[in-house]
What we know:
The protein is an alpha/beta fold. It has helices at about 20-30, 35-40, 45-50, 55-65, 75-80, 90-100, 115-125, 130-135, 140-145, 150-160, 175-185, 195-205; strands at about 5, 105-110, 135-140, 170, 185-190. The chain has twelve helices and five strands. The protein has a five-stranded parallel sheet with strand order 3-2-1-4-5. Helix 1 packs across helix 2. It starts with a strand and ends with a helix. This is HAD family phosphatase.
Amino acid sequence: MLHNLIFDLGDVIIPIDLTAPIRNFATLANLPEAEVETIWQQYDFINHYETGILDDEGFRSHIRQLLKNDAWADEVIDTAWNTILLDLPVERIERIKELKQHYRIFLLSNTSPIHIRRVNEVLTAMGQPRLDELFERVFYSYEVRIAKPSPEIYQHVLSEAGLVAEETAFFDDNAANIRAAAELGIRAVQVQPPKTILDYLNENL
């Protein structure tokens, strides 16, 4: 019997474009996209940001330093960084609200504070609850200081929320994250286009 549902955020609840920040920072810095992508790969600052090693200001400082522009305001960096987030389909939020009547609902995301603030702004503008109101508990990599697919982050969620792995389903778009969860006995479902999370919920619940 399933009693608990854990959702990823990016490309499960909200569609994302991983290349959009690279394009936008390249435009801002007047650099080729390939050069910015190389910088992203060479320096591990995004992973450090998403695991809480860097705070917001540290993240922005790294961007200014690596792209050699000290004049960018915080808002300029945040806006470019948030271009990864595409339009949020309201029907997905409504479905999660329906599921709360029958399951314990959780969010587990490798993410950053800038992204979470923006998603909450969008939800509020839509007249929807914030993420921490929509879900019973939210688990963000930057707060837990561990990122998927590390087994420790799944064990943390199970322990903190008092969940039994075999009674829990996890929906994520990343194959490595799915494998790691499945190895702990969680019913892990990979969300892959052209299907959406709504399709997988209909098939599995």
